[in-house]
Design a protein that fits this description.
With 127 residues, the chain is mainly α. It has two domains: 65 residues, Serine Threonine Protein Phosphatase 5, Tetratricopeptide repeat, CATH 1.25.40; 62 residues, no CATH class. It has seven helices and no strands. Helix 2 runs antiparallel to helix 3.
Length: 127
Amino acid sequence: MLAEAYRLNSMYPEAISAVRTAIALAGPHPWNLLSLAGTYAASGKGAEAEAIYDELLARSRREYVPPTSLVWVSAVLGRKDEAFEWLDRAYEERDPLLALTKHLLLFDPLRDDPRFQDLLRRMNLLE
């Protein structure tokens, strides 16, 4: 969460340092990696963010990676269609993080797309 606070305040070196500390302490959990990818993308380091996306995608083929992790990394990389494919998968798999779809900042890059409103409708979260 500290890394996210730094990222949201455009303090990218501090955010990268904080998330690297989290990875050193807790390992490369998908949440840590998506935080790092988001910081890289926000700071103009697209190649590094792409590498993390590739790592998460490879891991998803051999172990469980929450689809919402891939939603967000796709979204910050500007791949909206891909992000919505992952959102549909998260919906089908009943990814627990979807319960927070309406409020999590992770979904902000997708909110202006009509497909996002459709997802909220399917989940009965429009009100």
